[in-house]
Fold this sequence. Notes:
By secondary structure, the chain is mainly α. The protein has 3 domains: 2-113, no CATH class; 130-348, no CATH class; 351-418, no CATH class. Helices cover 69% and strands 4% of the residues. A 3-stranded mixed β-sheet has the order 1-3-2, with helices on both faces. The longest helix has 33 residues, at 74-106. The termini are far apart.
Amino acid sequence: MTQGLKxxxxxQLTHWEGAAERLDDFEASATPEAWASVExxxxxxxxxxxxxxxxxxxxxxxxxxxxxxAAQTRPEFERLDRQVARLxxxxxxxxxxxxxFVDAVRSRANPELGAQLRAxxxxxxxxxxxxxxxxxxxxxxxxxxxxxxxxxxxxxxxTPLWDGSLSQIAAIKVTYHNRFRTTALLHxxxxxxxxxxxxxxxxxxxxxxxxxxxxxxxxxxVASWAxxxxxxxFAFAHSGFAAVVAVSDVISGTDADAFRFxxxxxxxxxxxxxxxxxxxxxxxxxxxxxxxLAESWTSLHQVARADAFTGAMIxxxxxxxPRVVKLSLLAELPCFRGRRLADLVDPQRVAPTVLRQMxxxxxxxxxxxxxxxxxxxxxxxxxxGLRFATEPExxxxxxxxxxxxxVKLGQLATEHEVA
Length: 419
């Protein structure tokens, strides 16, 4: 009886022990070209993280193997069987970690896509670092990757991973359909900036305190959306109206989409989210094409068609949006060393009039000149987004221009790194 149990445990142990050894092959499944398109600091950090995860798994397997070598009695083999089961669970968590990051690297296998993602790396790093460097905070390594789906996402630096370790990089998912309208990248970068700076917690407390006069429940509801409102404000500060209209285009749909309210969801009701972006534009830029966007939403999605509860909530929160904009962009906060987000990232630098002036000054060189692309990639992206919003008849041409910019920016990033 004991001999049969011993063989059972040995078979399972050998299987998961060997699987742990073969995890090394995962890293090799991403081509050298794909790895080469990852920024050096990110690549070194990521390879070390993957190695540490694999080595920890192997160490745990070695402990179980040592126990097996010393075991003689049935109770010992029964205990080892439970240890092997835990080893299996540990393997599966480690496999998820390795697969996630290596799959992200594999999305760079095509040279052109690799260059586009390298451009996204640059833009995300610049967006995050602009405020964090002033605050004296660590700027985390950032890697972007392409995936299908509707919305972007981020696995933040310092987030617990599947195996219990903390992520040593920020990994930002960029969707295929939106890869040339990269304001969602800035939204996700805003999540990382907020997490490092402590803005999320400070902003949530600020919303509760400043909105409580309008009712505790309303204040707490708006505050529950603090992380997403902050990320939208961050994207707006970096790209202006482009960020607002890009959000609108992604979340636009039926009345059910516009008025969907999910308790506990950190995202505001879509209708309110678009109107909040419109209010950001109005406060910083006055009248403009965002008014047309608001009119489209109010005519296509009449609040009277929402269910009674959601309609009442929207009706109560809409008048508060100007105040929410001020609290998100113009409130002096200790986490910002007494400054405002608009001081760290000035939305006026991406005002439509300023972007159009930049376009006139740069002329045809704006999207071809290495100097312009390298120094003004974020504002040129904001300009592309503004033009796509206001000149949809030229949409295909504008997106091709932005695509060329991103390929060039990715190539420049590689050249600067080699130099």
